[in-house]
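tool_call: predict_structure(chain=1)
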Amino acid sequence: MKIRGNAFVDTTNVICPITYFKAKMALEKLEKGQILEIKLQEGEPILNVPRRLSEDGQKIHQVIKNEDDTFSVFVEKVLSIGK
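tool_result:
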């Protein structure tokens, strides 16, 4: 079952580490407990972005491989960014 996000950011048009910073900026706009859906390319983005957000204290709920070989990552904002 796919989770629904409160917000969406498509990072498929940028490369690492910009993918992480776009995701982080989108999370900053959310309230604690809200979910961000991040669309990522395979390779470095899908390997690094979920790991770094998890290290920041955010909760990764689900990672789905899409039909176009991209990934959708659903992240819950648990902590305020930069805290």
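agent: The chain has a mean pLDDT of 92. Proceeding to next step.
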